Amino acid sequence: MIYSIKAKFIEKNMEEFYQKLTDGTIENQEPDGKEILSSMNRAKIIGPGEIQWSEMCFCSPPLKHERQTVYDKFFSDMEIKVIDDYVEFEGKSFIDYLKGIE
User: Fold this and answer.
1) Is residue 54 classed as helix, strand or coil in its secondary structure?
2) Is the separation of the CB atoms in 12 and 81 below 8 Å?
3) Can you tell me the distance from the alpha carbon of 3 to that of 17, in angstroms, rounded to the nearest whole number?
4) Domains of the chain, with CATH numbers?
């Protein structure tokens, strides 16, 4: 299934998150690392401290493994909704934001 996710990012952990996104730590995680990396490249900042992205996941509950291994350390207040297909949301690129804080 494909989901739309809104979440608040934990500012103090963003430098570490960007490092893990770019050093292969997340990308090489099985089974979902490549999808997490692709999702963060699609993610947009939609408000102060808040991002939105679309992501494919087959866990029950949705994003269970992703949350246990990555997301819960870097995001809070996640809202997850089923959607029909990937969406490119409006807003500033989250990955560009992360590049600027390293």
Assistant:
1) strand
2) no
3) 21
4) 2-101 (3.30.70)
Q: Which of 10, 30, 61, 76 lies closest to 18, judged by CA?
A: 10
Residue-level pLDDT, tens digit, the chain, 102 residues: 999 999 999 999 999 999 999 999 999 999 999 999 999 999 999 999 999 999 999 989 999 999 999 999 999 999 999 999 999 999 999 999 999 986
Backbone φ and ψ for 41, nearest 5 degrees, come out as: -70, -25
Q: What is the residue type of 68? A: Q
For residue 42, give both structure tokens.
């699609």
Beta strands in the chain (DSSP E): 2-9, 44-47, 50-56, 75-83, 92-93
